[in-house]
Design goal:
12 helices; elongated; mainly alpha
């Protein structure tokens, strides 16, 4: 357990990746710790030393503290929680009120809807399939997300001139 905690392993998936990272670790660590330690096993929380409690968390207060600390990424969040810089759940994404990391950490990661429309319409593509192909074949700007509906669906729904056009048709062609 000490080795797992020292390396900041927090989940079963991370444990598997860590264990499979070298032959030496494969020999030292059991493939299924819950089975190997069955008489002492009290769950991943105890094994990793991480508390996953997400009840009664004031998401806005935790968000305020994270922004004050200058946390900008999910990884920085993990470090801050695991080193007790912030008293909050490691998996804050499971807390009611959390929507996404960019919003939570107040990061304007992606371009505005208007700039997206200018960019997407300049490409000369018309469908979601063409968009996916374009992203595979080209270097997409980091300010443009691959999953456009996740980030711009609300903007689209608030448009008065969208008529009966689908999201994708509006994004690439317009009204």
């Amino acid at each position: 357990m000490t080795l797992i905690r020292d390396y900041g392993i927090f989940t079963a998936k991370e444990y598997d990746r860590f264990r499979n990272g070298s032959e030496e670790l494969k020999e030292q660590l059991p493939s299924q710790p819950s089975v190997f330690y069955k008489n002492k096993w009290n769950g991943w929380d105890e094994f990793t030393g991480v508390q996953h409690q997400v009840d009664n968390v004031d998401i806005q207060e935790v968000q305020r503290i994270a922004i004050e600390l200058g946390i900008k990424t999910k990884e920085e969040w993990r470090i801050a929680v695991s080193t007790k810089q912030i008293d909050a759940p490691l998996f804050v994404s499971k807390v009611q009120g959390f929507s996404n990391w960019s919003q939570f950490l107040n990061i304007e990661k992606y371009t505005t809807f208007d700039n997206l429309l200018k960019f997407s319409r300049s490409l000369g593509i018309k469908t979601q399939t063409e968009w996916r192909q374009w992203c595979r074949d080209n270097e997409k700007p980091h300010t443009i997300p691959f999953d456009l509906p996740t980030h711009y669906k609300d903007d689209f729904l608030s448009m008065e001139d969208r008529g009966t056009l689908s999201f994708w048709r509006y994004i690439f062609v317009g009204p």
